[in-house]
Amino acid sequence: MFERIVVGVDGSEGGLEALKLAIGLQKIHDSELLLLSVYLEHTMWEASVSYVNTELTGSTHSALQEYAREVARQCKEFAQAQGVEKVRSFYMGGGPARTIVKFCEDHDAQLIVLGSRGISASERYMLGSVSHKVTNTSTRPVLIV
Amino acid sequence: MFERIVVGVDGSEGGLEALKLAIGLQKIHDSELLLLSVYLEHTMWEASVSYVNTELTGSTHSALQEYAREVARQCKEFAQAQGVEKVRSFYMGGGPARTIVKFCEDHDAQLIVLGSRGISASERYMLGSVSHKVTNTSTRPVLIV
C-alpha cells in the first residue's frame, strides 16, 4: 500500500515522533523509508525581493547544511537500529515545505509523514508552518503525527 | 498499530477518497473503522452570540440530520461491500472539526483519516477548513488524503 514513505525530519521531537510512526508503518507495509532533512536556503530570486543577504556567510550556510546532513544521518541510524533495512536518507537545501512536496513527487512516494510541529515552532501553535503548508499543497496523502 | 481508525465522511469526493484509503489500511492493520458524519448544529451559546436563529426550522434541522445519517449508512455499506466487517458508522450534530476530534478521543482511536477537502470546500483551497482545524487541534495522528 505504501511502497515509499517520505519522512520529514529536522532534529526536533516532532520529527522524531514522525520517524517512529513511519518505522511502525514500514514494518507492516514493507515500505522503503526516504528520510528527508531540509536546510533553509533562499533562491537568488527570493533573496533579491527580501532583505536577505544573497550570500549567506560561508560558515552559516555550511553550518546549516552540516546540521541537516547530521540529522539525516542520525535518523537513518535510528531506523536501522530499529531493524529497518529499506531506508535512505537525504538532505537538501530550499524552502522546507516546497522541497518536501517536490521530493515526494520526484520519488513517487505514496505518503508523507511529518511531525505536527518542528524545530522552529512556537509553543502557541499546535501545527507548525511547514506541516501546514505541506498538508495544503501536497497531492499525496500527508500523515501529521 | 491502528486498532481504531476514525474516518470523517460527509458525502463529498474527498470523504470518499479518505474512506477508500482507510479501508486499505483496515485490511492491513485489521483495524476497526469508525465512520463519522457530522451535521452542522450550533450550540445555544454559539447561536446567542451570532445571528443564527437558535432554532433551525424543524425541517432544515431534520434534513441535515437525515443527510448525515444517510451518508454514514452508505459509507458503512460501501466498506462492507469491500469486505470490511469491523466497521461502525455514526452521525452526530455539532461543529464538525471539534466533534471529530472529541469523537476520536472518546473512542480512543489511534488515527483520524480525512479528505483534504470536503463538501463545503471552495475550488480555490487545497485544504478545507475542517481538515485544517482537525489537523491543528488533534492530539492523535491525522491522515489527510
From TrEMBL, chains A, B:
Belongs to the universal stress protein A family. Residues 1-145 form the UspA domain. PANTHER family: STRESS RESPONSE PROTEIN NHAX (PTHR46268), UNIVERSAL STRESS PROTEIN UP12 (PTHR46268:SF6). This is TRAP-T-associated universal stress protein TeaD. Pfam families: Usp. The gene is teaD_1.
